[in-house]
Predict the 3D structure of the following.
Amino acid sequence: MTKSELIERVSERMNIPKNRAEVVVNAVFDSMKQALLEDDRVELRGFGSFSIRNYDARTGRNPRTGEEVHVEAKKSIHFKVGKELRGRVDTLND
């Protein structure tokens, strides 16, 4: 699902114009982005949680040449799926 498809679904489900649904969707995403940039955790019960993970610098290996390379320390966004969503997806396998 793309962002525009999400806006369409919100518009239909809430029976509001698309431009208003776009404002709502953008506000939610902007709030989530801001929280993550402030190193806060974002938890959506039943869906999952987003958090920032810190990775130390390390020595890696170029897979093509086998040469050792230095990999800088970095931060990355981590998503952990919630129990309810995980359970619903698991039932798709049955």
The radius of gyration is 19 Å. The chain has three helices and five strands. Residues 1-40 form one domain.
